[in-house]
Specification:
This protein is of the alpha/beta class. The protein folds into 2 domains: 88-177 and 190-474, Alpha-Beta Barrel (TIM Barrel), CATH 3.20.20.300; 495-631 and 638-648, Glycoside hydrolase family 3 C-terminal domain (Rossmann fold), CATH 3.40.50. The chain has an 8-stranded parallel sheet with strand order 16-12-10-9-8-6-4-17. A 6-stranded mixed sheet has the order 18-23-22-21-19-20. The longest helix has 18 residues, at 205-222.
């Protein structure tokens, strides 16, 4: 046996071990050292940065516990289950508890982890070495090349810990195009696609899987190994502020889309692969049935209303996730009212604390065997300023302990773990779990159960054998031109043509003079149009806008950032009146960002053509109106006829408003 040290800059570059996505046995014969081509792979073929490399039988292994011996958990030839068992036996209770926390990587001069300057490694060192936290969300906003450098720093820090256990680095979605008025480009380098609701409109699971596969490659190129997505929530309450991140209102079709998304991200139809990105499907279950559409991040949105019939559809939407073997499930925030499990009313606590929802419905009935990760801040205290703020809330007032407000924080940890939580999102106090075991409120066997699931995922991702990415390749392996072209095409094709009076679209070659509101004049002139300010000179007009909304809770941290309330324009709204006036004078195209289903009202009568989009550049919109890329999307949910119809429908049933203006799956073609 020979022992030596390798670094990221060393000429001795060792390829990653090809682990299986199944915990029982390797997927292929592993008697020879795997040999990746570092110029082609997202992962850099490197073993260590600070620990030694062991050579045995002509093969190389990472000496993660620095004992100079090849221990079973370091041996990439062994089955995942055997490696987990060996490692778990070497871990202290404190180290196991640390695996049950999903923290936030601190950013330099940042807010809640948000930063454009990189991670604060000095602060992170304590999280790794003192608290033993093993998973983190990243909120860095940097170029792909810089992200790769920063995420490698995190893995290098993880390697210096006693057992060298690598970190999972997660991220919220980075590859969707949330429409900003008049914006033409994004700057973070990741390929920009429509929001998930746009994939629901396109209704082509193969395209969704292709999106997932491309995003997987971009995430792994920059060091992200977990996606806190997709949302399998059903869009049943039209006012809900998170509809744009769903795939629509039909359980069967949502299930198909979610399954395709996961297959693309995880790298197979049979679970995670060493080149895959772990998916955390959310939010189990019934989140879309939010009372009045108010979101569960807020105290006033802590309730969802369902019945024993409607809940079946909300559960059915997750079928595709289980079939694709999603690695993670995130429980929903709200308290579910009106349903029973095994004939018993569901306890009036949020899903993260609800044994009936996590153990009976998720583990037993759905057969889920992966990691259950709580949504963020469920163990924190909700003060009076959290419940009814008298001034704008800061991040310190964010808390979501719905239904367990009267419990202490340690009691919430115990109740959550007992209910079925494996990992707490957004927390940094593993010592509470340790103390609960020492006080006899939790058993170490229960802690072992959760730690084993999390460690198995890290082995399946290949992180124990190669957690590093090839920094020079990150810039070229993210946002490739051919991927951007495909994403642009999907932005265009997913749009829904709702109205096209006298076949205005696609525009005739003679229609060149345009009156514009909400669209970049530069984008239009670059395509041969002449932008005019005098309406009498215009051949046509075009308006871009979003579904109307209200800010009903401006002092709440999330309420001030979410679109709530009515879906129709206020009659006094200046832009609404302008659109009405213009559309009565010249042929007018309305392009609405359908982040929630709009009540079009009189606009439906006066506009000549109406297009719904789900996030697109101005150029993608111009491609549609000129006919370069015809829209083929159909509505993934109905558009109600009035606010009264919205108020009268049931929050938990899909597409049930009275006399909808446009029905589910409506869409015209050129």
């Amino acid at each position: 046996m020979k022992k030596h040290t390798a670094t990221l800059s060393s000429a001795c570059l060792i390829a990653t071990a090809m682990l299986t996505g199944c915990s029982e046995k390797p997927s292929h014969d592993q008697t020879e050292q795997p040999n990746n081509d570092a110029t082609q792979a997202n992962q850099l073929a490197v073993q260590t940065t600070s620990k030694a490399v062991i050579e045995q039988d002509g093969l190389t292994f990472r000496d993660l516990n620095a004992d100079g011996k090849l221990t079973p958990y370091e041996d990439w030839r062994l089955p995942v289950e055997q490696r987990v068992t060996d490692l778990l036996a070497r871990m202290t209770l404190e180290e196991k508890a640390g695996e049950m926390i999903h923290g936030t990587l601190p950013g330099k001069n940042g807010f809640a982890g948000f930063s454009q300057q990189g991670y604060d490694i000095d602060v992170a060192t304590s999280l790794f070495k003192d608290k033993h936290i093993g998973s983190y969300i990243s909120r860095l906003n940097m170029s792909p090349a810089d992200l790769a450098v920063e995420n490698n720093k995190v893995q290098a820090l993880a390697e210096t810990t006693r057992l060298g256990i690598p970190a999972i680095i997660s991220t919220d979605p980075r590859n969707h195009f949330q429409y900003v008025l008049g914006a033409n480009e994004t700057t973070d380098g990741f390929t920009q696609w429509p929001e998930p609701l746009g994939f629901g409109a396109l209704n082509d699971p193969q395209v969704t899987e292709q999106f997932g596969d491309i995003t997987r490659q971009e995430y792994r190129a920059t060091g992200f190994t977990m996606a806190l997505s997709p949302q399998a929530d059903l869009a049943t309450e039209p006012r809900w502020s998170r509809i744009i991140a769903t795939f629509g209102s039909d359980a069967v079709e949502v299930s198909q889309q979610v399954g395709a998304y996961i297959r693309g991200f995880q790298g197979s139809s049979d679970g995670i692969t060493p080149e895959g990105v772990s998916t955390v499907t959310k939010h189990w279950v019934g989140y879309g049935a939010a009372v009045e559409g108010f979101d569960g991040h807020n105290y006033y949105g802590r309730n969802a209303q369902l019945d024993d019939t409607s809940i079946e559809d909300h559960i059915r939407a997750f079928d595709g996730a289980f079939e694709a073997k999603t690695t993670g499930i995130m429980p929903a925030y709200p308290i579910l009212h009106g349903i029973t499990v095994d004939g018993e009313p569901v306890e009036a606590v949020s899903a993260g604390y609800n044994k009936q929802i996590l153990q009976n419905l998720l583990r037993r009935d759905a057969g889920f065997k992966g990691v259950v990760i709580s949504d963020w801040a469920i163990t924190r205290d909700c003060s009076e300023e959290c419940k009814a703020p008298t001034k704008p809330q800061g991040v310190g007032e964010i808390a979501t302990p719905w239904g367990v407000e009267d419990l202490s924080i340690p009691e919430r940890f115990v109740k959550g773990i007992t209910a079925g939580i494996d990992q707490f999102g957004g927390e940094d106090q593993p010592e509470i779990i340790v103390n609960a075991v020492k006080e006899g409120k939790l058993t170490e066997d229960r802690i072992n159960e959760s730690a084993s699931r999390i460690l198995a995922l890290k082995f399946e991702l290949g992180l124990f054998d190669n957690p590093y990415v090839n920094e020079p390749n990150a810039a070229t392996n993210v946002g490739k031109p051919e991927w951007q072209r495909l994403a642009h095409e999907v932005q265009a094709k997913s749009q829904v043509l709702l109205k096209n009076t006298e076949t205005l679209l696609p525009l005739a070659e003679t229609m060149k003079k345009v009156f514009v509101d909400g669209l970049s004049a530069e984008a239009l002139t670059a395509r041969g149009f002449e932008v005019v300010s005098d309406l009498t000179q215009a051949d046509f007009a075009i308006f871009r806008f979003s579904t109307p909304s209200e800010k009903l809770h401006p002092n709440h941290f999330f309420g001030s950032r979410q679109n709530e309330g009515r879906l129709s324009f206020d009659e006094e709204d200046e832009k609404y009146q302008k659109m009405l006036s213009v559309s009565q004078q010249v042929p007018t195209i309305l392009s609405v960002f359908l982040e929630r289903p709009i009540v079009l009202g009189e606009l439906n009568n006066t506009a000549t053509a109406i297009l719904a989009n789900f996030g697109c550049t101005d150029d993608a919109l111009i491609d549609v109106i000129t006919g370069k890329i015809p829209p083929v999307g159909t509505l993934p949910l109905e558009l109600p006829s009035s606010d009264n119809a919205v108020e009268s429908q049931k929050a938990d049933y899909a597409d049930d408003s009275k006399e909808p203006l446009y029905k589910y799956r409506y869409g015209l073609k050129y």
